[in-house]
Design a protein that fits this description.
The structure is a homotetramer. By secondary structure, the first copy, chain A, is of the alpha/beta class. Chain A has three domains: 150 residues, Rossmann fold, CATH 3.40.50.620; 172 residues, Argininosuccinate synthetase, chain A, domain 2 (Alpha-Beta Complex), CATH 3.90.1260; 32 residues, no CATH class. Helices cover 41% and strands 19% of the residues of chain A. Chain A is built from 13 helices and 14 strands. Chains A and B meet through helix 5, strand 11, strand 12, helix 9 and helix 10 of A and helix 5, strand 11, strand 12, helix 9 and helix 10 of B.
Chain lengths: 405, 405, 405, 405
């Protein structure tokens, strides 16, 4: 690894990445550039500026990426109905490639030779950051302090912070025992009591949603309008992707929607327990399937269903910027041209219930054929006999052979 | 088609199949044998005997197939986590092969040359019955009256019934406007207002579950014990498969669990709206995924996820008795040897929430590795660098080539 | 089915479709329009005009579709490396959608209400013609005489021809005992002694290629230039798609290349024996894989390999004009942007041997990394340890659990 | 890594692994146990004993594993019709897990705490050895000298050998410029001029087969008898798996069969050029597909085809001892119960031509249905109409919707 002169750090403004900023300056004797993004985590990003300045950082990038995140990452992924391992809506996974993309773009701009991040050596995020970065800037150097340093306990970190005059904010109230991550799509919790998969997390852990028990006793009805597989309006009102997600998070969270508690398989080879709140995402997945149910051809839908687990795995593992994810996306996007219409949902104490779907332009639901009543010849029931007979032919030939044995 | 002498009819005891029994006698001048099965539909089957006798049927088969249904059909399917089109738990689909199997077994026993059923020419059930029958008795003849006769309206049917002295029961209260089908796994609703996919069904349609709104305001906690992927005990008490399902239907229904409202793609080529109540199934799917989450290898789980849509489609389309379904089952069953342990669930107003999973014998969740705390060397974070570097290699080589253009 | 006034017939000019033309006029009392296409079958199409006129046909369409066939059907299919059941290069399958497309386009032009073809009721071609037609003109009526009439033996056909003054050409020499079909991609043989899958066909059956035994004893070397996955030049000389195929058929056939003898599974449910000569196709498949081997990303290539059997099945079954084939094509075509370069092949007595592949612009083969010699740090062998360790982690955890039992 | 006391080395008897044996003794100050296996590489293994003794090795294992290799590794893989990237028959890949298995079994027997092998840090073999070992003995330590030492050139190795009195055999004749690996399934060549993928290897490289040009001008016909997907007899004579392979290598090689020249994608992320001779395997793959073509159900065959690339990738990447490979094997093996019969092949100058296949007990080829002649009602052509109509229904509904736009 050649000498590092300048490194762009994904900087949250929090204690850990502040320590990293200092450590990079000391350890590598290099200039540090910070990059802080608002991707809907729900915290102010501007305070990161003063903190960075206090550490002598000269080049400070602070950006609002919420629309890009929603439009170019979250929405395409929801066209795929992506769920990892039947449960996880990929909230953390989908944010990493965007951060990686901006890190290397900035690195090119400021002529840095390295990037750095605060992800640990046990998790998926290091993989997602670094695969994204390498795919876009193949000769970038990556510094992952958690894999290098010996500050491997809270105590050592605190000592380092104190020794280097890094402000340790004492947030009001108790410090969360959980490791958390948030963006427009979700907030996640790991660690603490969750390390025992038999233990139920206490109610106080959850931050974005009320418990179903505490949600309103009256349901909320909403309508979502789709164009080419993407939501373009809520209750008839056109909104940008990020606004839609923010609104759905609010409405969903208020109705106790989007909590998930699961054990997942990390790309690095271990199982880990995570809890997630994904109010908008939970609504979006259900609604997207509903609008597809009346507009998408059967075999297109089934092909999507068979490709989905692979797509989700690619996103989870950090292969967003890969030819294979792009190939799948091309197939999926091709199918979405006809996914236009409106879905009506009932939200009630944790439940997302589809109560209606319609599409003037693209509905393939043909009442005149499907009806239990007289269809006036729209469908010839006699066709079914030949259909069944030929579908059965191979099974009958094989059965005769077995009988003959 | 050669002359029919004796036909075995799948006989529910209801008006439609009673008319079919009469019509077969008249039209084919053949002997009719009735077969009525209890597969957990929740209605008495014994009354079918007197009705059949009243029509002059001499050979009457009435059987309780609930355990066989749960053990040999529903449970193997749930090992696959099967869902059709992201929503449908295959409640009707999975019952048909069993009926087909018994129909042809009886046909062989009584030396009948044909079987008959009451499924229409527009639906999936005709396909499922007939594919099942042909696969097991390749030269059986199948009579599907709905594809043959001209009794294609309620009025004509009623006239036929009256004319032939077939008792039309006037069930107390209003007749349901829906076409329904029930067994241990679910009850389904089609037709009526559901033919408009934008219309929300009225609350009175649902029969097996209370509305989430009317479910208890206190959650119910249950524990399910798994052996080789199958539930063997509820709250620590060993039970047979059918008993478990009956119990979970009761508990789930009381907590507003298992309603689904969807538009599905039929094998015969049309879209159709259906509503389903699947209380036990909804709980079983969630719980099975949870026990797999700590006991199943990652790649085994992912392979199952990728094969699942195909498995579900095979069941939906009626290919239960096919070499390809059996091949998939062999792979799935192989994976389930280690799926042993206990899942704890919280049921609350429509929500099935996993709150704990454990497996003394087979948990692959290794706290010492996954921990956020010091792992004492169980996992070497430095390994991650090489892992990422080699996973990135192909992406980097390609990126360099693009840069050089 | 409503009354037919005008029907467009896929007319080869041969005896069978001449009989059909007459039969349609008689049976349906309708006007018949003929459509005859040159898709490279190697016979003159112009003579069909006089024959049609002799039967009183007024609207006669004769078209040269060779370039459209090669460019829009064969070439896209070869981007997918499509092979059905590990052996069959889909020569017949890929021609049918084009014929169907032109049939319905002409039907619209001449305001016909029906189309007709000469495919039998046992084969795949009826399915391919009709699925194609329905997908493009959903309310077209299809007349498939072989499924309707009672001319089900050679004798009856001959009698009918004689009775209606249809000229029976006595081609010079012996009549082939095989049913044959030819186009730019292949010639096929079915029937005759081939109906016994244990019987080896006599050498005289084959028409497009010499036997390997009779091919030159000196190899032929050729170079094929690829752009975006398609061949654009042969031995450095730019050529149109159809010209390339014609040339490769000539060169391949002369070197004994492209014969195949197999038993395949038809969509209608039976197995059938077929023999095929596909000289150009056999060369193109091998060469395309070779150019992909140095230009395509590993995971893109593997995804293509996993999707290929499904793509081939769709083409075989006649679903060319379907959303699912188009989705797969979108994914495949996306991957081909980088498939540029040259492949060098040695053709010798039935063998197609790749002896070189290169791509100035897009080769991902990096000698400096792959070398067995000192790579000067291009690849860090130490990375492999971490790569292996983390790939092994889940296997080790599971093995420890098994040991503990 | 804890202290190593005893290590089992995969020892070929050649220079490289002799140097490793010495280096391990010196570097780790540990006892070295050698393991040398005959897996059909075509060289004597017994001479390894004296060489090991000369270096002071006390525990020396020399084993003939040919039958186990053929029966438990090669044959199961050929049931899957496995080919990697459309070309490679996995000759090296399939041998590694067996060596890994014996290494750890011996390690357990002799109470060694580590294993060692001579694979480099750039290739797939290190991965295959180590994944296999970790899966069977999770806490084994692995020493991969090529990733550790600084003997990274031929010169340094020679110097080390000389310095430590390791005999450098001067094989008669010219030393091969290629890196080679051989076993019962194949011999492989890498390096040298092959590092340029545009260069054709000289004829003298190939060792197991004659050039097609030099093969006999008379074809050789053989018959292979299959039971449950495995070859059990050659030309009617029952033989053990390893014997069959040895015979087919001889016959195939004499007829110029089984050469392949390709660029493949390694698991570690780079492309590499390899040439292979796989005479028996090339014949076995073609023959297995042929016997399946008449005995295997269509959908079982298609499912196998879709799973095959994944299976091949697992074997290539070294995941033989993994739950997912075992799941796929369970599905594949389930399908092979009916794969019984005889295949007749013509071998001629590089060509493997199937000329007949038959199966008394399990042929699904039904001449009475498939015939072009009158089938006497075995198949009702009218069924095809309904079959096509319902297969087309979804396409027609969608086309109508598009028309209405």
């Amino acid at each position: 690894m050649s000498e590092i002169k300048k490194v762009v750090l994904a900087y949250s403004g929090g204690l850990d990445t502040s320590i990293i900023a200092k450590w990079l300056q000391d350890e590598y004797q290099c200039e540090v550039v910070t990059f802080t993004a608002d991707i809907g985590q729900g915290e102010e990003v501007e305070p990161a500026r003063a903190k960075a300045q206090a550490m002598g950082i000269k080049e400070i990038f602070i950006e609002d990426l919420r629309e890009e995140f929603a439009r170019d990452f979250v929405f395409p992924m929801f066209r795929a109905n992506a769920i990892y391992e039947g449960e996880y809506l990929l909230g953390t996974s989908i944010a990493r490639p965007l951060i990686a993309k901006r890190l290397v773009e900035i690195a090119k701009d400021v002529q840095a030779d390295a990037i750095s991040h605060g992800a640990t050596g046990k998790g998926n995020d290091q993989v997602r950051f670094e695969l994204g970065a390498y795919a876009l800037m193949p000769d970038v150097q990556v510094i992952a302090p958690w894999r290098e340093w010996d500050l491997n306990s809270r105590e050592k970190l605190m000592a380092y912070a104190e020794q280097h005059n890094i402000a340790i904010e004492n947030k009001k109230g108790k410090k969360s025992p959980y490791s958390m991550d948030a963006n427009l799509l979700h907030i996640s919790y790991e660690g603490g009591v969750l390390e025992d998969p038999w233990a139920e997390p206490e109610e106080s852990m959850w931050r974005w949603s009320v418990a179903p028990e505490n949600a309103p006793s009256e349901p909320t009805y909403i309508e979502l309008t789709y164009e080419k597989g993407d939501i373009v309006a809520l209750n008839g009102q056109a909104m940008s992707p990020a606004t839609i997600m923010a609104e759905l998070n609010k409405i969903g969270g208020a109705n106790g929607i989007g909590r998930d508690d699961l054990v997942e398989n990390r790309f690095v080879g271990m199982k880990s327990r995570g809890c997630y709140e994904t109010p908008a995402g939970t609504i979006m997945l259900k609604a997207h399937r509903a609008i597809e149910s009346i507009t998408l051809d059967r075999e297109a839908a089934h092909l999507k269903d068979e490709l989905m687990p692979r797509y989700a795995k690619l996103v989870y593992n950090g292969f967003w910027f890969s030819p294979e994810r792009e190939m799948l996306q091309a197939a999926i996007d091709h199918s979405q041209k006809v996914v236009n219409g409106v879905v009506r949902l009932k939200l009630y104490k944790g439940n997302v219930i589809v109560v209606g779907r319609k599409s003037e332009s693209d509905s393939l639901f043909d009442e005149s054929i499907a009806t239990f009543e007289d269809d006036k010849g729209a469908y010839n029931q006699k066709d079914a006999e030949g259909f069944i007979k030929l579908n059965a032919l191979r099974l009958r030939i094989a059965a005769r052979k077995r009988q003959a044995k």
